[in-house]
Design brief:
By secondary structure, this protein is an alpha+beta fold. Helix content is 39%, strand content 14%. The protein contains 19 helices and 15 strands. A hairpin with a 2-residue loop joins strand 5 and strand 6. Helix 1 runs antiparallel to helix 15, helix 14 crosses helix 15 and helix 18 runs antiparallel to helix 19. It comes from Candidatus Avipropionibacterium avicola. Belongs to the bacterial solute-binding protein 1 family. InterPro entries: Bact_solute-bd_prot1, SBP, TAT_signal.
C-alpha cells in the first residue's frame, strides 16, 4: 500500500471530490426567494437542552450537503447524537455539487428546503438579504470560542453570524504521481520549486518533460503530438478554486474589488489566464478544455488513473486521492508566480433554514455540528479539516496513521491569499461569465477579448 519516502515534500496514497468554491453551472440569483415552510420537517417538539443532552428535544431534522465523504461522517455522528437524544431523528440529503445551489434555491423558494444546509460564501448573500437563514445567536455562545475566526468573519455581517463553521480548506497544493515523476527523471523537489511567468519560468519546461504522447514521445522532444496524449504534466483547467484563482492571485491580480465588482480583465488577469490557455492549447501539457470545461472532475479522475503527473487542488480532495490512487503520491507547494505564491482560502458552514417547522430541534443539530464532539466525526474520517478547533486533532491523527502530513495546505492558507468570490447575484454573474471563459479556455477567443466580455457580462448581473 503506501510507504512514505520523500524529501521536503509530503507523501500519501490517493479518489475524488468536489470543489468547495463555485465552479459548477450556476442558476439565477435567489433574489425572489421568500421564507416558506419546508415540506420535510417534523413538528415542534417540547423542551430544550444543549447538544447531545437528551433534554427533551424531539422531531425530524434533515441536513443537505454536497459531499459524499462528509455525508458518511455526518451519518455516523448523527447516529451518536440520536443515541444521546432519543426523541430526535436526523437524516442527511445528498445533492451533487453540479446541481446543489440551483436545487437549493428552488427548494427553499418552494418550501421544500431542508432544515439545515451546507453553504459556501459565493452563494450565501441572497439568503441573508431575504432573511432565509437562522441567526447564530446566544444559543451558541458556549461554542463560538472553538470556531476558527476566519470562518466567523467570512460569514458574519453587521455582527450577525449566519452559519455554524464546519470545514476549512487552508490553501491549495499540488499532488504528484511519484512514479510518473521518476519515469521522466523529475524529483518532487523540482515540482515544489516551480515558478511560472517571466524570465525565471520553469513550469512550462517541466510540464513538457512530464507530458507524453501515445507514441512515447515526450513533450519537450521533436515529433511530439499533443493531439494524441498518453499523459499530461499539468492539470491546467477552468477550475476556479484549484487553478485559476491561484494563478490570478500569484500574478498580482484580483477577481473582484472590495465592492464586489469584477476586475479580472486586467493586465494581471491576461498574464494568468493567458498562461493557462497556453499550457492547454499551445504546449498541450494539460487536458483539452473540451474535456474539462464542463467536467470539474475530469483532471482528478485522470490523475487517479495515472495519466496526470501533477494535480493542483485542495485538501478537499485529500481523502478522495487517499482512497483512490493505486500509486505513491505526494503533496508540494503551488508554483510561484510573478507576485509569489498566492492561494484562495475558503471555509464552509451549515445554515439553519429560517422557515423550519422545528427550530428547537434544528438548533440542537446545529449545536452538535458546532461542537468539538460533533465535528470530530468529520476529522476522524479524514474527509475534511474541521473549522472547529477542538476537532482538528482528530483529522491530524487520522492522516498520521495513514503516513500523510497535510500541513502544506495549512501552511499555504496562512500565506498570501485571494478572496473567494461572492455577491448578491453571484449565480447569475457566474452563468454570464462562464460561456466567455469556455471559449477562452478552448482557444477560440483571444484572452484579452474573452476577459473583457466576461467581465462586462458578469458585472451587468452582479449589479442586478
Amino acid at each position: 500500500m503506501f510507504t512514505p519516502t520523500t524529501p521536503d515534500s509530503v507523501l500519501g496514497r490517493g479518489l475524488s471530490r468536489r470543489h468547495l468554491l463555485a465552479s459548477a453551472a450556476g442558476g439565477l440569483a435567489v433574489a425572489g426567494l421568500a421564507a416558506c415552510s419546508p415540506a420535510q420537517q417534523g413538528e415542534q417538539g417540547p423542551g430544550g437542552g444543549s447538544s447531545g443532552s437528551g433534554g427533551g428535544v424531539s422531531g425530524k431534522v434533515t441536513v443537505r450537503l454536497w459531499d459524499e465523504q462528509v455525508q458518511a461522517a455526518y451519518d455516523e455522528g448523527f447516529a451518536a447524537l440520536m443515541d444521546k437524544t432519543p426523541g430526535l431523528e436526523v437524516s442527511t440529503v445528498l445533492v451533487p455539487w453540479d446541481d446543489y445551489f440551483t436545487k437549493l434555491r428552488t427548494d427553499v423558494g418552494s418550501g421544500d428546503g431542508d432544515d439545515i444546509f451546507m453553504m459556501n460564501s459565493s452563494y450565501i448573500q441572497p439568503y441573508i438579504t431575504n432573511d432565509l437563514l437562522l441567526e447564530i445567536g446566544s444559543d451558541f455562545d458556549d461554542l463560538r470560542g472553538d470556531w476558527i475566526e476566519p470562518a466567523i468573519e467570512q460569514y458574519s455581517q453587521q455582527d450577525v453570524l449566519y452559519g455554524v463553521p464546519q470545514l476549512t480548506d487552508g490553501g491549495i497544493g499540488v499532488y504528484y504521481n511519484e512514479e510518473l515523476l521518476a519515469n521522466a527523471g523529475v524529483t518532487p523537489d523540482e515540482v515544489d520549486a516551480l515558478t511560472w511567468g517571466g524570465s525565471s519560468d520553469s513550469y512550462i519546461q517541466l510540464a513538457q518533460k512530464l507530458t507524453q504522447d501515445k507514441s512515447g514521445t515526450w513533450g519537450d522532444e521533436s515529433g511530439f503530438n499533443g493531439s494524441k496524449p498518453a499523459q499530461w504534466g499539468s492539470s491546467a483547467a477552468q477550475d476556479l478554486q484549484g487553478i485559476y484563482y491561484n494563478f490570478l492571485g500569484s500574478a498580482g491580480g484580483q477577481f473582484q474589488d472590495e465592492n464586489g465588482k469584477f476586475i479580472f480583465a486586467s493586465p494581471e488577469g491576461e498574464t494568468a489566464f493567458g498562461y493557462l490557455v497556453d499550457l492547454i492549447n499551445k504546449y498541450k501539457v494539460a487536458p483539452a478544455a473540451s474535456n474539462t470545461n464542463d467536467n470539474g472532475d475530469f483532471v482528478r479522475d485522470q490523475f487517479l488513473q495515472g495519466k496526470v503527473a501533477t494535480f493542483q487542488s485542495g485538501i478537499y480532495n485529500l481523502k478522495n486521492i487517499a482512497d483512490g490512487a493505486k500509486f505513491k503520491w505526494g503533496i508540494v507547494h503551488i508554483p510561484t508566480g510573478p507576485q509569489g505564491r498566492v492561494s484562495v482560502v475558503n471555509n464552509v458552514i451549515v445554515c439553519g433554514n429560517a422557515a423550519t417547522k422545528n427550530a428547537e430541534a434544528t438548533t440542537e443539530v446545529l449545536r452538535w455540528l458546532g461542537s468539538a464532539e460533533g465535528a470530530s466525526y468529520i476529522g476522524k474520517s479524514g474527509a475534511a479539516l474541521p473549522a472547529v478547533t477542538g476537532a482538528q486533532q482528530s483529522f491530524t491523527d487520522f492522516w498520521a496513521e495513514e503516513g500523510v502530513d497535510p500541513s502544506i495546505f495549512a501552511e499555504q492558507g496562512q500565506g498570501d491569499s485571494i478572496g473567494a468570490p461572492t455577491g448578491e447575484n453571484y449565480n447569475a454573474a457566474f452563468a454570464a461569465w462562464k460561456p466567455h471563459f469556455d471559449e477562452m479556455f478552448l482557444g477560440r477567443t483571444p484572452v484579452a477579448e474573452a476577459l473583457a466580455a466576461a467581465q462586462e457580462a458578469a458585472n451587468a448581473e452582479i449589479d442586478g
